[in-house]
Structures are given as C-alpha cells and as structure tokens.
From TrEMBL:
GO biological process entries: protein refolding; response to heat
Protein name, per record: Alpha-crystallin b chain
Family of this protein: Belongs to the small heat shock protein (HSP20) family.
Region feature (Disordered): 1-29
GO cellular component: cytoplasm; nucleus
Biased composition (Basic and acidic residues): 1-14
Domain of life: Eukaryota
Cross-referenced SUPFAM superfamilies: HSP20-like chaperones (SSF49764)
Domain SHSP, first and last residues per copy: 2-113
Length: 115
C-alpha cells in the first residue's frame, strides 16, 4: 500500500514522483514528513522493508500519510550488516558493506590423457 487517505505521502528525491522511493544515485528516501519514531526499517530473510506512518488530528481535520517499500537484497549482501541513517533534513539512507571481491578464476591446464 503506497499511502492512505489524506495528504500526499513522502516524495522521491532525485527523480520522478512516488512515495518514499529510492532515488537514483544513492539519494535515499525522503522522509521529512515523518518523525523518526514513525519510520521502520527491517529485514525479513533477503528482503529489505521500509515503512513509515504518520497521523495527525485537529478539530475538523485528519491527516494520514503512509508508505511501504520492499526490496530484494542482492545475494551477496548479508541482511545483518545493513545500517540505516536519518539525516537532520529527513533523508533516510540504507547502507551495506561492499561484498568481498570475487577472486579471479585461477588458470589450470588440464592434462590430456592418451588412450
């Protein structure tokens, strides 16, 4: 579910519309319309899930914002190594250490057996 009723949810930074999307070039999630305690980042198996919910009420007015995004992590990323950071201007970043470099295949010459 992208967002509930009420006003618009978070917007994507650095490209295109959308709610709380990941921007190209590592821009992160635009979460400035949410308090830190309204944002949840979790992993389930190899999935990253980012959710945010905000509700405010005043006489004659109710505002509800929500977004939920789910991403499959690359196979070589360990979900336990992910870190999330929320900047003072409301940008949520998710980072993972780079996977270990893949060792180049070693050359091996196979002997040819003669029959």
């Amino acid at each position: 579910m992208e967002r509930g009723g009420g006003e618009r949810g978070g917007r994507e930074r650095g490209g295109g519309g959308g709610n709380g999307g990941v921007a190209g070039g590592g821009g992160g999630f635009d979460c400035k319309e949410f308090k830190p305690e309204e944002i949840t980042v979790k992993t389930i198996d190899n999935k990253l899930i980012v959710q945010a919910k905000h509700m405010e009420e005043s006489p004659g007015r109710k505002v509800y914002r929500e977004f939920s995004k789910q991403y499959s992590l690359p196979q070589k990323i360990d979900p336990l190594t992910l870190n999330s950071t929320l900047t003072s201007d409301g940008v949520l970043s998710i980072e993972a250490p780079a996977p270990a470099a893949i060792e180049a295949p070693r050359e091996r010459i196979l002997p040819i057996k003669r029959l």
